[in-house]
Design brief:
- It contains 19 helices and 14 strands.
- By secondary structure, it is α+β, with helices and mostly antiparallel strands.
- The protein has two domains: 201 residues, D-Maltodextrin-Binding Protein, domain 2, CATH 3.40.190.10; 205 residues, Periplasmic binding protein-like II (D-Maltodextrin-Binding Protein, domain 2), CATH 3.40.190.
- It is globular.
- 45% of the residues lie in helices and 15% in strands.
- The termini are far apart.
- Helix 14 packs across helix 15.
């Protein structure tokens, strides 16, 4: 009997042995489901959207495609050879079943903030796999030496703590760092209840207009710029410099760092090696406005439409298998990713993982701030990954070239708007209507 083949294009996040673990999971799934073969192909997360778009046009789209969260519009806009949406909402495909091929369906168990990220027009389109949030990392040893006993919760408190650190004799040369990356803009705007695009950040209809000169954006830029001007924030001079800012924190050249939750394990190891106490806290908010919540990043699995029933169910079952409590818990342990389901979090809690590694609780605690009454979700904007790079170039000029924030971010808006307009022109008549 010929095996039913499930092709899956998964995001290769380039961590050591990352794809190896996914291939191992595929072999375990095959052992539990004789007659099925899962063929995994790893692609760089930036390349998947264009590769899948071409594959759909050629009639060779795999059963499963893992998209980076900023590429959700690309997934919705991908069309098959008959000009139909290439993907079916995973919730629609499950069709109310509690199990698929004896694999328990996890859709109703997803962490609510993660589920909300991948909902479009009331339907869950994809199944989150990798999930990250953005946090404040603190060297508590340096903080206590400066007389700072509480981890700052607001921008204003963080500024005051940085000033105390700067005044400390023998303290670090600077107080804080973070990478000039689009993710920080997302969070800073979100915690203030702002948006970068019209139509509720593209959630209530196709986002047509961008604006990087909102009060929320400029408040973040001004706060950041002043920290830098006063010598409290250190900029490595390179956009996207995650490793450079990690080294500054690991070598105790700063007391604070803003970064992704997937840095937690590596940072904890560095703290142990250097002998300082690490704390991981929520991303601070602007005390001048109500705290509106946070956004999440990561990847999710999309299911191709029009599959043969056996292939469709094999793909759905493999998706549930990857996100079952044990596999999601192990994924968290290996990579510091947020456990995507509530059951996975409870399993880790019951096993004492968070007692032994308390700093790993911060992401779930932060995402628990999400509520339907204030549904903070990431922007749904075409070419969003590249558009975020427009913001980082603007911030680079503000920090190092003396550019004025409002004028420079107005220029960035115009540049990004051209990119979005070009995207619309290529995807007219797609799923993102309105």
């Amino acid at each position: 009997m010929t095996d039913v083949v499930v092709d899956a294009w998964l995001a290769d996040l380039t961590f050591p042995n990352y794809m190896d673990s996914l291939h191992q999971l595929a072999r375990r799934f095959e052992a539990a489901h004789p007659g099925y073969q899962v063929r995994i192909r790893g692609l760089h997360f930036e390349d998947i959207a264009s590769a899948a778009d071409q594959a759909a046009a050629d009639g060779r789209l795999p059963a499963i495609v893992e998209y980076y969260y900023t590429s959700m519009p690309d997934a919705l806009d991908t069309r098959d050879r008959a000009n139909r949406p290439a993907f079916v909402p995973v919730e629609r495909a499950v069709a109310g079943r509690a199990e698929v091929l004896n694999e328990p369906v996890v859709l109703d168990d997803l962490q609510p903030a993660l589920r909300a990220q991948y909902v479009w027009q009331g339907e869950l389109y994809s199944l989150p796999t990798v999930a990250t949030s953005f946090h404040l990392f603190a060297n508590m040893t340096l903080l206590r030496a400066a007389g700072v006993t509480e981890i700052p919760q607001t921008w204003q408190q963080l500024r005051a703590a940085c000033e105390e650190i700067a005044r400390t004799s023998g303290g670090p040369p600077h107080a804080i760092t973070w990478a000039n990356n689009g993710i920080s803009f997302q969070h800073a705007v979100a915690v203030q209840g702002g948006a970068i695009a019209d139509r509720d950040n593209g959630r209530s209809g196709r986002a047509r207009k961008l604006d990087f000169t909102t009060d929320e954006m400029l408040a973040w830029v001004a706060w950041w710029r002043q920290l830098h001007a006063d010598g409290l924030y250190v900029y490595t001079g390179e956009p996207e410099d995650w490793f450079g800012t990690f080294e500054l924190f690991a070598e105790e050249q700063v007391a604070f760092r803003l970064s992704s939750s997937n840095d937690i394990a590596a940072t904890a190891q560095a703290a142990e090696a250097k002998g300082f106490e690490l704390a991981v806290a929520d991303f601070p908010h602007n005390a001048d406005v109500p705290h509106a919540g946070n956004v999440v990043a990561g990847t999710s699995l999309w299911l191709a439409d029009g599959l043969e029933p056996a292939v469709r169910d094999g793909a759905l079952a493999f998706m549930q298998f990857l996100a079952n409590p044990r596999n999601a818990a192990e994924y968290h342990k290996a990579h510091s990713f947020v456990p995507v389901t509530r059951s996975a979090y409870r399993l880790l809690e019951e096993e004492g993982w968070f007692t032994e590694h308390p700093y790993h609780q911060a992401p779930n605690r932060q995402l628990d701030l999400w509520s339907p009454q204030r549904p903070t979700t990431g922007a749904l904007v075409g070419r969003y990954f590249q558009i975020q790079q427009v913001m980082t170039r603007a911030m680079h000029d503000v920090l190092l070239a003396g550019a004025q924030p409002r004028e420079r971010f107005a220029e960035a808006t115009a540049e990004a708007q051209r990119m979005l307009d070009e995207y619309h022109a290529r995807h007219s008549g797609s799923a993102l209507v309105g």
